[in-house]
Amino acid sequence: MKRPSFLGISLIPVVIALLILLPFFAHNTKSTEVGVRIIKWSLLGKRGIYKHIYAPGATYFFPPVINGWHVYDTKLQNMEMTSSQRGARLGKDDLVFKTIDGNDIALDVIIAYRLDPQKMPEILQNVGKSNSELEEKLVRPITRNVTRELFGALKTEDFYIADKRTEKSEEAKAILNEILNPHGVIVENVLPKDYRFNPAYQKAIEEKKVADQTAERFKSETKATVEEYLQKLQQAQGEVNKMIADIDGEFQKAKIATDAYYEQQTMIAKAIEAEGIAEAKGIEKMVEALNNAGGNTMIKMKLAESLIGKKIYLLPYGDSSGIDLKTTNINDLLKIYGIKSLE
Predict the structure, then answer these.
(1) Taking the alpha carbons of 322, 325, 328, 334 in that order, is the dihedral positive or negative?
(2) Where are the domains of the chain?
(3) Residue 1: predicted pLDDT
(4) Contact 115, 143 (CB under 8 A)
(5) What CATH code would you report for 77-197?
(6) Short-list 73, 70, 60, 64, CA closest to 30
């Protein structure tokens, strides 16, 4: 029979002790957690907070007694400061302050923030050993003071305007990051929620808003009526302008026709005048010709030509035995001569 070695027998208790103590050596981080180690005692190394960051979702082994271990959750945290029971603290936890015009207001606010993993050793050394301690000592007092101060700069009626609240939220976020970033806290959002005034003042505001809405409605109706009448006025003006244009057109047509008729008659009158002048000149020339000796001869010839083929009767004319031409009806006399000639 072989005798067991002294070395093999001596290692068994050591192995057993390691197996028993191994769970105490394991230090875990979840998927969103980072770990920070504190070296309490070391033969060779430096004591204090170890600057190395232990990454999420892993297991690390080191002795528990001579080392401290703290875990921080780096996922997005929502710190609710509200008047209901769902906030970070039980009971009424909303922000109560006065607006710049002196009215009391209560505001529910949610601060969304996360921790910078690279700042965990500084957080452990200067602020707190856990997320809750960090929030209570650092995040909560600073965010409440800054948020209360910035939103207190608004007027009472500004809280009804979403853009005004959003503007103050962005301003609060910028200031909080300026203060908290050096301490490892990154503010992602400042969300103002419900707001409440003093009940009596709230009622007065609501009544005023109803009155304002009624006034705005009347203004809109008045504006619509004015626009309607303006439109009708424009239509009437258009019709009047059309009538004026039609009348102007008729006038221009009549004027053109009158001018054309006038020009035509003027031309006709000028032609008649020219013709009359020509005839007058011809008569004048004829009169001049007739006044000459040749004119008398021409008259006699014309008279002789007109008597060709005419019957000539010679009637006695005298004081006693002749016919008195003043009292004699020549036509009746000619009829008598004509009857005698037929007989």
Answers:
(1) positive
(2) 6-72, 77-197, 203-306, 307-342
(3) 47
(4) no
(5) 3.30.479.30
(6) 73
Predicted pLDDT of residue 328? 66
pTM: 0.55
Q: Which residues touch 26 (CB under 8 Å, ≥6 apart)? A: 59, 60, 61
> Nearest-CA neighbor of 110 among 155, 74, 147?
147
Q: In this structure, are residues 84 and 46 in contact, taking their beta carbons and an 8 Å threshold?
A: no
The residue whose two tokens read 């710190």 is 79
Adjacent-strand bridge partners of 189: 112
Residues of the chain with pLDDT under 50: 1-2, 4-8, 17-19, 21-22
**CA 242 vs CA 228, 232, 248, 249: distances in Å:** 21, 15, 10, 10
